[in-house]
CD59 glycoprotein-like
Amino acid sequence: MNTLVKSVVAVAFVLMLSARTAYGIECYSCVAGDTKCKDEFNADGVLTSTSCTSCTKTKDGDSVARGCSTTYKGFDGCVENKDEKQALCFCKKDKCNNASGLTVTMATIASALLLSHLLKKM
């Protein structure tokens, strides 16, 4: 198999891994003040939302809320104001707003590896 065909196959594989987001993801949804919503997250009985483009987590001091965005399609990660103990986080994987930090998706890892491999070939 030549390099071009291998590259096309690799890109197709990465796109297949990422395709699920086009159909929507499932996110935990709870409001600030709910004891299950805190960073010591307990998903038992927490409602979920579907058809989201990304999951969200907002933190203001000890207050945490988790939810669903149907419009935001930007980066995975957090914007933090450590002085004020505030954070706004986004992620694009089913129920990824369950942790105190966000996880990196398999598609992101595969994309980085593919890009690294292709750049070495040039």
In short: The helical segments are 3-18, 20-23, 106-121. Confidence is low (pLDDT under 50) at residues 3-22, 101-106. The CA atoms of residues 110 and 116 lie 10 Å apart.
